[in-house]
Amino acid sequence: MNARTLTAPGTTRLRNIILVLLLVYAIVIGFLVAGYANVSSCLADYAEKSAVSTNARATIASPARQLDVAERVLSESDRQANRAFSKALSKVLVTLDGTQAAQRAAYADLLAQDAKTAATLDTNEKSREAIRKARAQNEENRKLNPVPPPPSRDC
Questions:
Q1: Which pLDDT score, from 0 to 100, does residue 8 have?
Q2: Which of 80, 121, 144, 148 has the fewest CB atoms within 10 Å, i.e. is most exposed?
Q3: Which residues, 6+ apart, have CB-to-CB distance to 55 below 8 Å?
Q4: How does pLDDT run across 5-22, given as a tens digit for each residue?
Q5: In sequence order, which residues have a C-beta less than 8 Å from that of residue 26 and are 6 or more positions away?
């Protein structure tokens, strides 16, 4: 190449066009990088909020499962008390054709079992009320740590 081709009249114009294209390219790349950084930042914020919410909800889940187990235990206790009462009632019905002493003994057993069943059911109902209050408190704790909206809304 000689010096004459670099200074030809069309070369300056070509050089300016290339310079403008390089500037446009740099600006476009700059916007793309800035947009990518914005999206990455938004996704990182979402991941952080989601981790905090998940941790809080996981902490609440264990007591909630324990409340479920406690409620199942209470239901089983109710069933056993009702079953014992039914047996005592059946014993009264069976002894209707028996002696008066057997009938009185069966009836006394029925009354005693009725009192035990009522006490068990009352105690279990109080326990259920405590479980309902604990569940309400768990729900309030859940509301304090809401699941963040999906990143498609914010980013």
A1: 60
A2: 144
A3: none
A4: 555 666 788 888 999 999
A5: none
CA–CA distance, 103 with 108 (Å, rounded to integer): 9
What are the residue boundaries of the structural domains of the chain, listed by start? Answer: 8-154
Q: Which residues of 16-28 are buried (b: 16+ CB within 10 A; e: fewer)?
A: eeeeeeeeeeeee
Q: At what angle do helices 9-94 and 100-144 cross, to 10 degrees?
A: 170
Nearest to 152, CA basis, from 43, 60, 58, 54? 43
Report DSSP letters for 123-140, one per residue.
HHHHHHHHHHHHHHHHHH
Which class for 106: exposed (0-12), middle (13-18), buried (19 or more C-beta within 10 A)? buried
Helix (H) or strand (E) holding 45: helix 9-94
Identify the DSSP state of 97: G
Dist CA 50 CA 66 (whole Å): 25
Report the alpha-carbon distance of residue 44 to residue 79 in Å, rounded.
52
